Amino acid sequence: MERQRDNRKVMNIKRTRLLKKYKYKTEAKENLDHLIEEPKQMVSAKTQRLSRYRKRQNMYYQNKLFRTDCKKFYSLLRQPNPNVKNAPGKEEVENF
Description:
The chain is mainly α. It is built from 4 helices and no strands. The mean pLDDT is 81.
């Protein structure tokens, strides 16, 4: 019972800090849900932006490498891809 009270007390402290930080006067549940959802969406947007940047950076690197040193570019393409998960076995490939 005491542990539940402590948890509620901690949650109330966190709630009041969030409300003070974002200058909300009322403690409506919609406001709290909005406060929680907004940072999640910001992190998601930054993650997607970073992945697009990395893909573009890789593309520019490969284009430059192709223009300057084709042999190195093709050897880079022949390297095994470590991102492949659950590659089919030899029997499955033969059956296919």
